[in-house]
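To: structure subgroup
Subject: Chain for Friday's discussion

All,

I'm putting the inputs and outputs inline so they're searchable in the archive.
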Amino acid sequence: MTAGKNPRTVRSFVRRTGRLTPAQQRALDELWPKFGIEFAPAQLDLERTFGRRAPCVFEIGFGNGETLAEQASLNPERNYLGVEVHEPGIGHCLLKIEAQGIANLRLLRHDAIEVLKDQLPEQSLDRINLYFPDPWPKKRHHKRRIVNAAFLDLCARVLGLGSHLHIATDWENYAEHIDEQIVQSTNFRCAERRKHNGDQPLERPNTKFEQRGLKIGHKIVDWKLARI
């Protein structure tokens, strides 16, 4: 719960207090100053942040950062920006950056909604990835789901025309909810919707959360939404 100038009574995440390993703590102490970006309610200069001008991909809730680091390593011509609130995951991702010598990836440790609203400039991103967000399956928790009309509006603000928002989930009920939000949006059209068994990811790597869903018999749904 927050109060003041920017009240938000519902968040799409719960801060977990997982224990940091010594290596993860070292990464936060030593690598964060180089690869981390502190949150500030001011427009981020992405060209200055990365030291170059290049298409920028923003990943929301990157978990332990394995797939985010993989994407950045395989696509050096793009800049990658990831946001996460779970410190062990951030520490793990920083270690991947160090081990693989990744130069085109920066991390944020904050609420993605506030980053979209207050820190990213208009039309500054080429792509946003939202892979397997918390489905909040209980009906009384549906209000916590990140994909809603306000979220799509924020994404539209920071994406240039013709850019894309990619979403994936393994929860059927959440997929239905996302479909409803897309139909109602005036800022996006569905360029592609793909339902599969984990064998046809849509322009993305397979993820740990995807594998968990498949193990309990869930289908995967991917969307590619074009900014119009």
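Points worth raising on Friday:
The chain has one domain: 22-227.
The two ends are 34 Å apart (CA to CA).

D.
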